[in-house]
Amino acid sequence: METTDLKKLATILIESNQYRVSKKYQKPEFYNIGDDSDKLIGVFLDIEATGLSYATDKMIELGMVKFEYTEDGRIFRLLDEFSGYQDPNMPIPEAITKLTSITDDMVKDHQINEHEVASYLHDVDIIIAHNAQFDRTFFEMTFPAIPPKAWGCLMYDIDWKNEGISSHKLEYIAYKYNFFFDGHRAIIDCLAGIHILAQDLLISKQLVLKQLLTNSQALRFKLWATNAPYDSKDLLRARGYRWSNNQIDKHRTWSIELTEDKVAEEISYLRSNIYNGSSINIPVEIFDAYSRFSNNNNQLQNTTKYQDKLEWAKTLCIM
């Protein structure tokens, strides 16, 4: 069947209101053209690994795709790609091979050159991943000498729930935008991620990349509800706290990440509803786009940089 016939058939199905039609991803030549605005360079990064633990698992594939963008969230041309296999020096679990189609033979004796990765990223203004907490930890473990860049996250820096999208999985978000792709390979995941970034959000109609840039650039305060009473767990969960089960977390307890404008209200809530005291003693950390999601975050450097804001948060705890 010819392409024009398929398009006609798709139109008929869509207009019937009885079917939903998804189109297979096709790499566009560009997203926007004819603009003289100052363009920045972003890169979408994706990593495949032998498992989820950066302490015991290893990266097996790295994919990166550069693109031009402006601060208002518009994406222009797709630029050069970088991809490579990495021998983890351990057998790839059968479940990972089934998920990614990457075998031991495909990665055997392959090593990604750290200097080549650093050179590729030299002119990049922001690195974006779909799950930056996963990708950044593996990236830094594999390439520890590469200077930090600002990071953004397609999963956490977009309010998908308020946009009517209930799942954070990349394939599901693509489905809501009426396209599909063969996922769990690094380069195609990157291209699909950029394609989503170039769209309008379904309800607010803001460009996806614009919301990501705004949220990723905001200073983040992380409050740790240490020694919270056990019977308060339902209150904390309902308020958006998450139990620490991530390897990079410094405390095994409930925590919440907030922008600066919400910190005072949250500390007041903890004092009144969780600890029932006039003062509380909870750890507070501050992250910016350069330190967020990192597994080797230099907290002393951040403490010095944001000392005045940390002191302000501590003052709120004893008011």
Quickly describe the structure.
The protein has helices at residues 3-15, 94-100, 104-107, 114-120, 132-142, 170-176, 186-197, 208-217, 233-239, 263-274, 299-305, 307-317, and strands spanning 23-24, 40-49, 59-69, 75-85, 126-129, 151-153, 179-180, 220-225, 242-243, 254-259, 284-287. By secondary structure, the chain is of the alpha/beta class.
Please describe what this structure looks like.
- By secondary structure, the protein is of the alpha/beta class.
- A hairpin with a 5-residue loop joins strand 3 and strand 4.
- The protein is built from twelve helices and eleven strands.
- The radius of gyration is 22 Å and the shape is globular.
- The protein folds into two domains: 21-217, Nucleotidyltransferase, domain 5 (2-Layer Sandwich), CATH 3.30.420; 220-317, no CATH class.
- The termini are far apart.
- The strands form three sheets. A five-stranded mixed β-sheet has the order 4-3-2-5-6. A four-stranded antiparallel β-sheet has the order 9-10-8-11.
- It has helices spanning 3-15, 94-100, 104-107, 114-120, 132-142, 170-176, 186-197, 208-217, 233-239, 263-274, 299-305, 307-317, and strands at 23-24, 40-49, 59-69, 75-85, 126-129, 151-153, 179-180, 220-225, 242-243, 254-259, 284-287.
